[in-house]
Every structure is written in structure tokens, then in C-alpha cells.
Design brief:
Helix content: under 10%
Strand content: over 45%
Number of strands: 11
Order of helices and strands: EEEEEEEEEEE
Amino acid sequence: VQLQACGGGLVQAGGSLRLSCAASGRIFSSHVMGWFRQAPGKERDIVARIRWGPGTTYYTDSVKGRFAISRSTAENTVYLQMNSLKPEDTAVYYCARGTSTSTADFTLWGQGTVVTVSS
């Protein structure tokens, strides 16, 4: 299984982007799909995640109310709708598949897509 992320780009502050991550194989109900980001000079951190089966979600505090993670079980695709973007959202965004909500258990990673928010 491979993950293919896309949708990044350059946007002005206050704008929106929608990231997509398509899996080449099936995602099972026990899996957790997550979006992570790594800003220049910083560690990679969780942004949002969704339990594939029940669809329950988690967001890091800095994106609550602005970002929304969703999934299409039919298309094995996870999305990240990003609204009200801020310059501090600038980062490489990665999607990943995990077997639990623990970051250490995310073992399948996409290639990353760059999001740049200008002020």
C-alpha cells in the first residue's frame, strides 16, 4: 500500500486549501489516518487524525475550528480542509496510516505536500 498526498500550494493568509491523500490499497476500519506537518527547523507534529471505522477525529489545538479532517471509505482517501490559514501553518504536510492513535504506530507515510501561507 502507498499513500499519495496532494493539494498543497501557495496561499495568502486567510485563504483555504484542501489536501487529499489516496491510498493505493484498502484502509481497514482498525486503522487511523493522520495528517502531520513539519515546519522548517521543527519536528514533525500531528495536525489531525481520524479513526477509519468510527470516523472519530482529533485536532491539535492550533488548528481547532479552522481545519477539518474527513474520509471517503469508498475511495480510500483522507482529506484535510484547511481554512483561515495563517503563516505559521506553513509546512510540509504528510499523511500517514497508523494502527493506533500513538504517533509511533504511524508506519506508512506519504511523500509530503508543501503548504506555504504568505502574510
